[in-house]
Design goal:
The chain is an alpha/beta fold. It has helices at residues 4-16, 54-61, 100-109, 115-135, 148-154, 158-170, 192-199, 225-236, and strands at residues 92-97, 140-143, 178-180, 203-205, 213-221, 241-249. It contains eight helices and six strands. The protein binds zinc ion (ZN) (2 copies). Residues 28, 30-31, 33, 52-53, 55-56 line the site of one zinc ion.
């Protein structure tokens, strides 16, 4: 939640510079505990709102070993399920399983005041997978788009905020390369068996992607049908490779569960 103090700090920081931290010390984006300032010897970047305290960062990024191709847990390196090939994307990077604390953080991202948490989660994702992203030779980061009508009523798009920060940290272009044609039923309101059909034709390429190696980003992946539909659309638009990334993966999907997911 953005407190009045935080808003004041940000407003003041824009014209006073870093000195404002003396009066309003930077806080953890999630638990709001004071963060050690740069003067205390710890790393603290005043230009990057959305930092987390050490405890929150550790909690949120705790994960099992995971296949970097299909995303299944438990597979370190060689995966018996996909054997190194996945028809849905060229590879997928996940921050962690959708546990209680990560769920709380992701739900926070979906609120208009949650952009700071989105940026913090994006930084954790890049911190964990930077070598993989560099190895994939990503040259553009694409958010899973939200239909404009839903975007308007939500006030923010978590996938977009996360993708924007990931692009910044990887120093590659942030590309709104896809649009959502229809305000499809929310994936989490449908049984798993109907999700693929629900988004199969939902996306369009809205700018050239020919020859690009793209990273498509969503906040949560459940069945993978949304990211797979985005990949198919971008590949049909001429992208050379399409990788996927998400903050959380719901490893055991239960029909009718209340968590968001696609
Ligand atoms: Zn914290
Ligand atoms: Zn696999």
């Amino acid at each position: 939640m953005t407190t009045w103090g935080e808003r004041l700090r940000r407003g003041a920081a824009s014209w006073m510079g870093e000195g404002i931290d003396l009066f309003f010390p930077p806080r953890c984006a999630l638990c709001r505990r004071d963060l050690p300032s740069a003067g205390d010897g710890a790393a603290s970047d005043p230009a990057a709102p959305g930092d987390l305290c050490v405890a929150c960062a550790r909690d949120l990024s705790a994960d099992v070993g995971r296949c970097i191709v299909c995303g299944e847990p438990g597979a370190d390196g060689s995966c018996r399920r996909c054997r190194g090939r996945c028809s849905d994307w060229d590879g997928i990077a996940i921050l962690a399983a959708y546990g209680d604390r990560l769920r709380e953080a992701v739900l926070r991202c979906k609120r208009p005041t949650g952009d700071e948490v989105s940026r913090a989660l994006a930084a954790l994702l890049v911190g964990r997978h930077r070598t993989t992203f560099v190895g994939w030779r990503i040259d553009g980061v694409v958010p899973v788009p939200m239909h404009w009508l839903r975007r308007l009523s939500r006030g923010t798009s978590a996938a977009e905020e996360i993708a924007r920060r990931v692009a910044g940290l990887l120093e590659v272009p942030f590309l709104r390369a896809l649009s959502r044609q229809t305000a499809t039923t929310m994936q989490n309101e449908l049984p798993v068996s109907e999700r693929r059909g629900n988004v199969a034709t939902a996306f369009r390429v809205r700018r050239p992607v020919t020859g690009r190696r793209l990273l498509v980003i969503d906040d949560v992946v459940t069945t993978g049908s949304t990211l797979a539909a985005c990949r198919r659309t971008l590949a049909a638009g001429g992208a050379e490779a399409v990788y996927a990334a998400a903050i959380a993966r719901a490893d055991r999907m239960v029909d009718g569960a209340s968590h968001h997911g696609a």
